[in-house]
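Long-time lurker. I teach an intro course on protein structure, and each term I like to show students one example going from raw sequence to a predicted 3D structure in token notation. This year I'd like something fresh instead of my usual example. Would anyone be willing to generate the tokens for the chain below so I can use it in lecture? Attribution to the forum is fine with me.
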Amino acid sequence: TMALVGVKVIGQYFTSGPSVLFITIAIIVSLLSQALWHFTDLWLAAWAQQSEEYSNEKYRYQFFNNQPLAGSLLLYSDDENLSVYAGLIILLFVTIFTRMLICSFLCLKCSINLHDKSFKSLLRSPVSFFEQNPIGRILNRYTRDMSIVDILIPRTINELNITIFEGFGTILVIVIIKWPMIFPTIILAIICCLVREYYSRT
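-- Reply from a regular --
Happy to contribute to a lecture. Here you go:
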């Protein structure tokens, strides 16, 4: 059986680290990175569709006379499209790296503050505390448990950050491209939540 961590414990973990402003910046950077990710995919899809349209006979006259197609947001030259796409990829790499760096720094700050608070509390503990708790149990809290806080939790939070924003971003793209698909998406999301709840309790 897996133990579920309460919302209060999660809140205490994040509030023990950087300020609310830093957490807000981390969320904004994550949103920008995810938005750029999906925009890059949409740009590539639109570019491919435009190339396919230009291969048709009815669009060749407009292409060679530099007449824009109605509703097209892309440039006509493949070199210009390639330059824009390369710029998007570079910007996406920078934002993803910044996103991971900020998230890792946030978790590191939380870990340092939690370790300092627990160690200060240990130094101020009465002698009766050490008489009632074996040394091995105390050392276990500062070795195995703190290693989970230092290593496992940051990795899990990074994965959670990517999963949540990618999930919502994918749903948003689905709504933009074909909004009726939102209904089966909601049904699948409910099923996934139920399966996850069953798995966590059993």
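Some talking points for your students: The first helix runs from residue 7 to 15. Residues 31 and 165 are 7 Å apart (CA to CA).
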